[in-house]
Amino acid sequence: MNILKNLGFGANNKPAPSMEGSSIAQGPDDDVPAPGQQFAQFGAGCFWGVELAFQRVPGVTKTEVGYSQGFVHNPSYEDVCTGSTNHNEVVRVQYDPKECSFDTLLDVFWARHDPTTLNRQVGS
C-alpha cells in the first residue's frame, strides 16, 4: 500500500500549510468604492458566469474577479484550478445602491449559483 501512496493514490493526508508568518495579506482590501458606490463580493466556485450575470445588472458599475483566502501569494488561475491552494474564486461588484439594491445582487447570485452542485460550480 505504501507504493500506491507514494505514486499519489489514496487519501491526501498532507497537513494544511500554516498561515502563521505568511506574507499573504490577511485583512480586507484597502481600496474604496467610487463616491456613492458600494462593494459586494461573491464566491461561487467559478467566477466567469457569475461576473457576466452581474455585469448585466442595471446599477452595477464595475466587476472584478480574483481569489480569496488560500495559501499561495498571487496564485495563477492554473494554480487555483489544482485545488491545492485553498483559494475561492470571487467576483467583487461595485454598484450604485440608488439603482441596485444588495437584495437584487443576492437574487442574481443565487439564480446563478447552487452550492449543492459538484465542486459548487455555477449551474447552467
From TrEMBL:
Q: Keyword Oxidoreductase, does the record have it?
A: yes
Write out the entry's keywords from A to Z: Oxidoreductase
Top class in the EC scheme: oxidoreductase
Give start-end ranges for the coiled-coil region(s): none
Q: What is this enzyme's EC?
A: 1.8.4.11
Its UniProt entry gives the catalysed reaction(s) as:
[thioredoxin]-disulfide + L-methionine + H2O = L-methionine (S)-S-oxide + [thioredoxin]-dithiol; L-methionyl-[protein] + [thioredoxin]-disulfide + H2O = L-methionyl-(S)-S-oxide-[protein] + [thioredoxin]-dithiol
Gene3D superfamilies according to UniProt: Peptide methionine sulphoxide reductase MsrA
UniProt protein name:
peptide-methionine (S)-S-oxide reductase
Q: Which GO terms describe its biological process?
A: cellular response to oxidative stress
